[in-house]
Amino acid sequence: MKLKLPRILLLACSIALLGATITSCKKKQSDADIKAAVETALKAEPMSTVTMVDVKDGVVTISGECKDDMCKASCEKTAAAVKGVKSVVNNLTVAAPPPPPTIAADDPLTSAVNDALKAFPGVSATVKDGIISVTGKIAKADRQKLMMALQALNPKKVDVTGLSNN
Predict the structure, then answer these.
(1) Residues 6+ apart with CB under 8 A from 114
(2) pTM, two decimal places
(3) Per-residue pLDDT reduced to its tens digit, 18-52
(4) Domains in the chain with CATH codes
(5) What are the C-alpha distances in Å from 158 to residues 52, 57, 86, 140?
(6) Contact, 146 vs 138, CB < 8 A?
């Protein structure tokens, strides 16, 4: 019985070593194959805007611009799911939101409002924090012209609650 235990142990170690050798002899996917597979997968992804894929030793680097963080995460997940990818380096950037509309500062806006009001006697206005507050009396036909002139100055808001018709 004492002789059987070492033989069984030797046989088990031999089988484990043989299994490890066979597993490590599998054909490794080339970086070019992985790159092609990742590019194909990302093109099929509707949110993807990846412009560049690079692969080195199974590590995929994706770069480009995405519209939001959800797109960025989705592209990384898609690339990681490709067979042969060890890890993903996500160098995608999220596009900056468009700048807000320009709003004129109060001093230049005040002078522009005063210039616009010269054509409308009986009407006055004040400017505070980009909001034009109009008061006075105006002919109904001139009201639209006044509003168009004031809106063209790009204020935050035009308040005409103090404006009445003649």
Answers:
(1) 125
(2) 0.46
(3) 665 565 555 678 888 999 999 888 888 777 776 78
(4) 27-94 (3.30.1340.30), 106-165 (3.30.1340)
(5) 48, 62, 59, 17
(6) yes
